[in-house]
Amino acid sequence: MMHSDSHGDNSPYPRRRSPGRTIVSAVTVLAVTAGIGYWGYVSLVAGEDADPQVVAATGEFEKFLAAWEAGDARRAGLLTDTPGNAESLIKSLMTNLKPSRTEISAGTGERKTEGEVEIPFTVKMAVPGAGDYGWDSRAKVIRSGEKWKVEFHTETTHPDLVPGQTLALQTRDRAAVLDRNGDELRSASLVGMVDEGTGKGISGLEARYDKQLAGPGPSRAVVVVDRQSLRVVKKLTGRGSEGRPVRTTIDPAVQEAAADALTGLEKTAAIVAVDPSSGHVLAAANRPSGMNRALEGRYPPGSTFKVVTAAALLKQGMKPSDRADCPKFAEVNGQRFENQDQFTLPAGSTFRESFARSCNTFFVNSRGRLSESALHDTAQAFGIGGTWDVGTATYDGSVPVATSENDKAASTIGQARVQASPLVMASIAATVKAGAFQQPVLVPDAVKKRYDAPARLDAGVVEALRGMMRATVTEGAGRALQGIPGEPHAKTGTAEFGTATPPRTHAWMIGYQGDRNLAWAVLLEDGGSGGSDAGPVAAAFLENLVRS
Question: For residue 376, which of 316, 299, 309, 469 has the smallest C-alpha distance?
Fold first, then answer.
């Protein structure tokens, strides 16, 4: 971009000089140093037949072109017979087009009458979004006393202009990002942004599908506009074909319910909802807007990951009714694990109860039932560990094979190196609901091959998980969802992160509805407790859906 003061040593690009400019410079220098007359030197350099008036007029005109080329409208205006008009129009033209490169060169001048020389010139510009654009024009340079001035008219700058007009850029309307109903998608963090200067998508789906949305060819056209109304009078360059819309799977009612549930929160937060039967992403809401943490964020999932751990234990033969003691602490090689607020459960409590109340110590003490790869292998049945082809950027989770007893212990409760996005956690709930993993999809037309999970959950494991997730709502940490229609199933999570003492925590809740194809995940960054903090947000989301 050029600025009004970008000339001389501060010019953003090397000043290109034509032969005419070189002659004038040489004349000035030698006339001073050698003491010979100006017109005498012209005859020596330009030849006996050179017209002194043409040489003098061309020299002044070259100064005008150099100032225009550098974007110095004021300096260019002062070299004309109407400084204010010239400055205003040149400034308007350069501001509107914002050329990244400008080259203006003069041709051979011709004397028309005494004190009047006509000079052709060529303008070449690189205009962002419109490509290379150039034109030819002519100008008269007139002598006033001992000085030469450019006789400035509107058409001097461009032959297609008349007074009251200027050049500008017209951006082609981009195609829209649509929801599943074919209406324009209302989600800033999903849709993304378009750079107003270049017309290109710079984030979100606008960036990923920039070529499709913008269409082939230049995104902008150079046009003649009325300076007052900005009405387009004439198109000077062509534009490409219209773009094609991008259709997503977002359900506007679900998206609105999710966005409204986040309204007013002071914490950074996200909600994702998916259709368990198809994998279609129904909502992805973020607060604040910007980063799409709902699909791309990387977080420890905390106790929401106990769905996977429970699946691994069930696969090893445990039953929901089996005894599952829940002491205040669990020790692993000197590392102490505890339950939130150091709660305990009565002696004889069951696996189902420890899951519903989210007892860390039970899960940590159950690690002996699991091999080092058990959690990694079980996570594969939930799609974790693969690369998902969703139609947009996503983080698809990671559950590494345990490298130590402590690593395995922390992994059972969704800590250590276990990481997931809200989309992954919503998909875990969806897998329980559907009985098998269906890879999430946001832009169906762009998905070439969905990821197929290399393992499946046994029917008995699925049935047990469903009962345990329902118990979380009816008698456990998910009580914030009690009384909400639709038979919600859930799992809470409070995930530690950082090095502070006491540890800071993310608040999670995931779940699905028993009466419809809807699974979801709620995350509050640095948000406290899953049950008491994420729970009310999940409840607001589900209540919004009931009212929609």
Answer: 309
Q: How far apart are CA 14 and CA 227, in angstroms?
A: 32
* CA dihedral (138, 142, 146, 149) positive or negative: negative
**Integer Cα distance of 379 and 2 in angstroms:** 55
Specify whether 414 is located in the same domain as 474. yes
> What pLDDT sits at residue 217?
83
Q: Can you tell me the mean pLDDT for 514-518?
A: 96
Tally the residues of the chain: 548
Paired with 281 in beta bridges are 274
CA distance 139 to 103: 17
What is the domain count for the chain? 3
Which contiguous run of DSSP H or E holds residue 84?
helix 83-97
CA distance 382 to 435: 10
Residues 202 and 344 in one domain: no
Where is 133: in which H helix or E strand? strand 131-144
pLDDT at 15 over 70: no
| Domain presence at residue 146 | yes
Tens digit of each residue's pLDDT (9 = 90 or more) over 383-398? 999 999 999 999 999 9
Would 130 be classed as within a structural domain? no
The whole-angstrom separation of Cα 123 and Cα 16 is 13
C-alpha closest to that of 196 among 330, 83, 332, 96: 96
pLDDT of residue 343: 94
Closest CA to 377 of 349, 357, 400, 350: 400
Convert the pLDDT of each residue in 274-321 to its tens digit.
999 999 999 999 999 888 999 999 999 999 999 999 999 999 999 999
Supply 16's token pair: 């290109």
The verdict on 230 and 321 lying in the same domain is no
Report the 10 Å Cβ neighbour count for 372: 16
Query: How distant, in Å, are the alpha carbons of 21, 319, 379, 421 from that of 295?
Result: 59, 33, 18, 6
Handedness of CA 413, 481, 524, 247 (dihedral sign): positive
Report DSSP state, residue 323: B
Of 469 and 200, which is predicted with more confidence?
469
Q: Which residue has the tokens 């602490």?
A: 329
Provide Rg for the chain, Cα atoms. Answer: 35
**377 shares a domain with 301:** yes
CA–CA separation, 212 and 323 (whole Å): 58
User: Tokens representing 117?
Assistant: 């020389």
Read off the pLDDT of each residue in 97-105 and give the average, rounded to a whole number. Answer: 97
Residues 428 and 471 in one domain: yes
| CATH code of the domain containing 453 | 3.40.710.10
Q: Which pLDDT score, from 0 to 100, does residue 31 have?
A: 36
8-state DSSP, 71: T
